[in-house]
Design brief:
Strand order of the largest sheet: 3-5-4
Radius of gyration: 26 Å
Helix content: 55-70%
Strand content: under 5%
Structural class: mainly alpha
Shape: elongated
Number of helices: 19
Length: about 400
């Protein structure tokens, strides 16, 4: 049953004051400010309109996108990364987890106190939509240009050619040689998994040094203060088949620390690539590989080589199973045991329903950013790796 206050008809405050005392009991005043959009929201919509124009311009010009990504987005990303770097937890994760609660409270408040008339209800909806418009603006200012700029093969001056099974085999052999060399520098758990011999904060420091070195050599990427952060919902992310995610609205690289140790440095380097403006997944994979293998730390190099080997080996298996078996035979037994252990670990999450939903959403997002093949674009890193070792052959 509604109380007496709710049963009274709402009218504008100015009209309410003109009513005689006896008539006022039939009405309740609605503040005029609730029936017009706040100035702050109007400003946010104006910024969003400007960002929409920039978003369209990015889609029309690769040159403009490259310039925007380096000269405009990079400083904004750097600012967000510096602000959130001091927060000991992932602000992006906290925002996502608290968003449903916040939205529920906001709707309750609006329905209870702000939506007395159709006009005030429309204004309240306009306020909520201005928040979404702000998220879009941040995306355009920080990240969207990375999807529309020149591709990494052009930035690294790599040939974009068809890859043969023999070339895949040759590349796999190079990676295997490096993997076997690195395994001599650290031990393994009894469960057949290698152990990262330091904390995540130390790993971040080592990766930051490797990025400093890499960014100093290449003009298309600008370094910043971003450091990866572990997430609390790592187990949930595992069921979603997500090893890491970049939060563009907070500038944070978020890492699923529930996966085996050997995946974590490479995943962290991947998300740090996003922090530095490399938007496309296959390109972030390639940058992560190049950064990891130039690290002075053996375990980080091992992580880079082994994770890239898995991409190349999967492609080689599809192209020529005999060559694949020849390559695998050259891996150290410890490494083969680690890969087998990973397969056993992954079986728990392999067929989860939530992963299918996550994959569908991710595909849709990638396709809106003109990544035509969706999640399959992750496999294009194989072509880049083959082209890299053809351009820079090892003795």
């Amino acid at each position: 049953m509604k109380n007496k206050e709710e049963l009274r008809s709402p009218i504008k405050a100015a009209e309410y004051e003109k009513l005689p005392a006896e008539a006022k009991r039939l009405y309740r005043p609605v503040a005029a400010k609730y029936e017009r959009l706040p100035t702050a929201c109007i400003v946010l919509y104006a910024v969003a309109a400007l960002c929409l124009a920039l978003y369209v311009a990015q889609g029309q010009s690769v040159t403009f996108s490259d310039w925007f990504n380096l000269q405009v987005s990079a400083p904004v990303r750097g600012f967000l990364a510096a602000v959130t770097a001091w927060i000991p937890f992932s602000a992006g994760e906290a925002a996502v987890l608290l968003a449903p609660i916040g939205l529920g409270l906001l709707l309750w408040y609006g329905i209870r106190y702000r939506c007395d008339t159709w006009r005030s209800a429309c204004v309240f909806v306009g306020i909520i939509l201005s928040i979404l418009a702000t998220v879009f603006s941040v995306f355009v200012l920080t990240f969207s240009a990375g999807y529309r700029g020149s591709t990494l093969d052009k930035k690294l001056d790599l040939a974009d050619n068809e890859v043969s099974a023999e070339e895949l085999y040759d590349t796999a052999e190079i990676l295997i040689r490096h993997i076997n060399e690195e395994t001599a520098n650290f031990g393994f758990y009894e469960e057949d998994f290698s152990a990262m011999p330091y904390s995540m904060s130390e790993m971040n420091r080592k990766l930051a040094l490797a990025y400093d070195d890499f960014c100093a050599d290449y003009g298309f990427i600008r370094d910043n203060a971003g450091r990866p952060k572990p997430v609390l919902i790592s187990e949930i992310m595992s069921y979603m088949h997500i090893t890491g995610v970049y939060s563009f609205f907070t500038g944070e690289a978020n890492i699923n620390v529930g996966f085996p140790d050997y995946t974590i440095p490479y995943t962290a380097a991947h998300e740090m690539a996003h922090q530095r403006g490399i938007a496309r997944e296959n390109e972030a994979n390639m940058i992560a590989f190049l950064v990891c293998i130039r690290s002075e730390d053996s375990y980080i190099r091992y992580s880079g080589y082994l994770n890239m080997y898995e991409y190349v080996a999967n492609a080689l298996y599809s192209a020529d199973k005999d060559l694949y078996r020849q390559a695998v035979a050259h891996l150290n037994q410890e490494v083969r045991d680690e890969m087998s252990a990973y397969n056993r670990f992954y079986d728990k999450y392999k067929e989860s329903t939530v992963s299918k939903v996550s994959s569908t959403v991710n595909n849709a997002y990638l396709q809106t950013q003109k990544v035509e093949v969706g999640t399959r674009s992750y496999g294009m890193v194989v072509d880049l790796t083959v082209a890299y070792y053809k351009a820079f052959p090892e003795d």
